[in-house]
Specification:
The chain is mainly α and 203 residues long. The protein has nine helices and two strands. The chain is globular, with a radius of gyration of 16 Å. InterPro entries: CHP03086, DinB/YfiT-like, Maleyloyr_isom.
Length: 203
């Protein structure tokens, strides 16, 4: 990642646009349905709130080197009927905050630890995609990204898999063929069963 701004920011733009599109397809009825998603112990509302918080507000705050407020971390974003539009607008602000090569330099203070800005940005782009897939699959949609973005997500998943599993962020890898589509391999390596997306689309 010799030039993270050049190499990562385009995928941030792409994944943010797809996340916004998927959010727009989440109905109020779906949000009200009980039951788990592909994230253990999380219903759809909990999953969406996590997704919105960290991939839009969190993304902007990391660029600005600011901590998330208690008001934001405790907010139910889905209580606002216009939450999907607000999420899309916040994603635009967050992506714009990273549209400066200087922002990608140095470290970001996470409160309990510090991490390079490039690594943080890359991990949040991965969150946009894998949680975007979680939301899409739970709502009968598809999460569609280019092969380039999928390869990037796969690389981030494999680079940080041990860290995520240490904090129960990933389940054990799901077996998948070596010639499976790249995004399916990224999902499988993060502990998700990519075949569930097809099942959900058939419902």
């Amino acid at each position: 990642m010799s030039n993270p701004y050049k190499n990562v920011h385009p995928y941030m733009v792409e994944c943010a646009a797809e996340a916004a599109r998927v959010a727009g397809g989440v109905t109020t009825a779906r949000l009200a349905e009980p039951g788990p998603t592909h994230c253990p112990d999380w219903d759809l509302r909990t999953l969406v709130n996590h997704w919105v918080l960290y991939t839009s507000h969190g993304l902007e705050h990391r660029a600005l080197r600011e901590q998330l407020s208690e008001e934001l971390t405790g907010r139910d974003f889905t209580a606002d009927p216009g939450w999907a539009r607000a999420y899309a607008e916040q994603l635009d602000r967050a992506v714009a905050a990273w549209d400066d090569p200087a922002v990608w330099e140095g470290e970001v203070d996470l409160g309990m630890a510090k991490m390079s800005a490039a690594d943080i940005a890359s991990m949040i782009v991965k969150e946009m995609a894998v949680h975007g897939w979680d939301v899409a699959t739970a709502t009968g949609q598809e999460f569609r990204i280019s092969d380039g973005a999928a390869r990037f997500v796969l690389d981030v998943v494999d680079t940080h898999a041990d860290l995520y599993r240490q904090y129960d962020g990933f389940a054990d890898p799901v077996p998948v063929s070596d010639d499976a589509p790249v995004f399916e391999r990224a999902l499988a390596h993060s502990g998700r069963n990519p075949h569930l997306a097809r099942t959900a689309m058939d419902q």
